[in-house]
């Protein structure tokens, strides 16, 4: 376990994750208090990445549950491998007949069969999904419950039960309790309000777009081949775009993609043509591209000599 | 420190932030974990455990410095004055005007002002018990109080000069005087900080005496049509919270009712191709999420209720398997698409603008007629049909025949009416005539009643 917040920052950095002091503090708290982190914020600011880096930094396995509309317990927790159960009953038919051979009535036969029932509802036929895998894991894990806001409120209520005691009861097997309490990261893009009960249980972390310095560090680290001066300009422009009233602001992921694209076309500097050609990497809406062009090019004509 | 944190939590609560006991306990544990030395991390620890909604961050940011402000160095006595110089300082102060004497005891001698002293200054600055307000009021009062104490830069400069003159007359050395000057300046900074904190805390304490929660509860029980625009706004902000609670209750109920039964016939039929070996199970799932069609009267008198109804139903959408909404005054229009394509705030406004109030005559009969002819598919045996209106038809034909037909087709018919029962059937109200065709009628004049009616709707799916 981390002994200081600075250690968290360092360990995350080794995983190529630039953590703000706030992020590092919350991770430190989560470790020490054994509480889930609920990370909210715009798309592509590194919420998912945080969970990965945390797992990497602590040598835990990362188990991920991606949420979507209609996600239910059988996809999140466990299912019986019904086909396998069927196969076994077919193959064991003779054996089963023997078991029931002595029976003199239907009721007796059913009773005899019932005695053998737990053979078919044993762990052999259990298909654990991410939540159960996290609970059953022999080794400590980080459980990432990604984009919880996409799941239904109904699923959220179910999740609450799991997060409060990290045990599940499988009627046929009894209660399974976690040997190591998983460290949990829930992420949300805030497309809908989460329940208060869930929020109460978690440490809340609002992940915002990074500062200029942090974002530059991210770009330099993730795309080391980009000309440093171009990297700086990239981040400058992205930060400026985020201040504009766009349909969709560029995310960190998009800054990184852009930087990669610029390496691919071997850009030595970010002149008007290059900017024009690659703007669609960071802006996804036609109208945003137009607005950005007007704002950036308009301003850049005067600045250009300064930049080159 | 714990006590201070608990006071801070009380302040947050009175600023409208919801904090449970468990969260308070978490906050105390969290600050034990990160310690109090690094102020930013201390703040992060409190924020992560107490503030779970971006909307509450401003309140947190406003309250935090008032409870955990930079203490600033406490008031200090001048260092390194000889006993004789201290005497000279004492005598010099006594030569000043009364008001300057008080000030210089604090600034030059490092005397901490008492709470009573602060309160006196505050009163003279115009602070009163029944003042309520936020940042702006705080700044204004702080400014006035500093002036009252003689701490504005100009006043301070003048006072300092007067003191220096006296010190010189008392024969204090140049180094001694320089020492005093620096002490005064340092202490003036601390005192300004203390004043700002004092004002902030006093305001928060007073706000504590009229908790916002109480106010929201009051508003919840006031007829929606009697709200001022700013009161309505306050309630609008509250709707999401309210709905979040309704939704998780509905979701929990649904969980309990879940767990499908084996559909034996379905399983056998489906597995014929496996030669009758039931390789895949078919489960009977009770269809638990209601299918809802709303018909909402958006005429002028109904507007406040209609708005809150649409708003809440929009937020409940994920608890509904299918929702269609229709707005009417004299005739009916489908507005489902508006809700699918816009955020609730905008959607409600668009709907209300599509049908501007005024010269129309409310005519439910005619609206039902159009509804049955053009939107017959909006009601089937699984649909819960909700009519939101006061049943005042301007003496037009209520078209009870159509109501009867709808009742026969729908799973349930509910009516939400803002008027109290004793007004039903008076004047142009056809409400009593409609009642026999409803499975339930709810009075929904207030947000509380509306919320209860909606909760009820999800209880009996
Ligand atoms: N702090 C960071 N340090 C290093 N890389 C980062 C950081 N933040 C974001 N990134 C980069 O941005 C990419 C996108 O981040 P990620 O997918 O985690 O975002 P997200 O917030 O989960 O987005 P979404 O809401 O779309 O799922 C990462 O793959 C990584 O390259
Ligand atoms: Mg993600």
Uncertain residue ranges of chain A: 301-308
Report the total helices of chain A. Answer: 15
CATH superfamily of the largest domain in chain A: P-loop containing nucleotide triphosphate hydrolases
| Largest beta-sheet characterization of chain B | 6 strands, mixed
Mean pLDDT of chain A: 87
Q: List the strand order in the largest sheet of chain B.
A: 5-4-3-6-7-8
Helix percent of chain A reads 55-70%
Compressed to H and E, one letter per element, the order of chain B equals HHHHHHHHHHHHEHEEHEEHHHEHEHEH
Number of strands of chain B: 8
Task: Just give the CATH class of the largest domain in chain A.
Answer: Alpha Beta
What is the spatial order of strands in the main beta sheet of chain A?
2-5-8-1-9
Fourth-tier CATH superfamily name of the largest domain in chain B: von Willebrand factor, type A domain
| Helical segment count of chain B | 20
Largest interface: A-B, 36 and 41 residues
Taken in chain order, the helices and strands of chain A follow as HHEHEHEHHHEHEHEEEHEHHHHH
Proportion in helices of chain B: 55-70%
Note the overall shape of chain B.
elongated
Sheet with the most strands of chain A?
5 strands, parallel
Count of distinct structural domains of chain B: 3
